[in-house]
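Ticket #4471: structure export looks truncated?
Reporter: QA, pipeline team
Priority: medium

Steps to reproduce: submit the single chain below to the structure queue and open the exported record.
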Amino acid sequence: MTEDAVATVGVIAVATVADSAAGLPVGEVDDKMIAYAERIIGRYDSNNDKQLVKSEYEKMLMSPVAADANRDGIITVKEYALWMQSRRR
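Actual output as written to the record:
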């Protein structure tokens, strides 16, 4: 398993544990996290497509690369929200 795959599995595993501990269905994000992710992405989303690509997120102070769960180079609102939710617990 590659380092990227391990990181992805780690984010998903942490999100799964956090979700079940919070009483949410696995893989679900609470509405507050979605709203927070939308605000953060909105600050850096230069083309207003509601997602971040490398040229947009490289301006951020904290790299959100680990949030890209499917490793397609695009960070969606849900991916970012899941990542932030997993870090919060």
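Status: closed, not a bug. The export was complete when the record was re-opened. Leaving a note from the reviewer for reference: Residues 3-88 form one domain.
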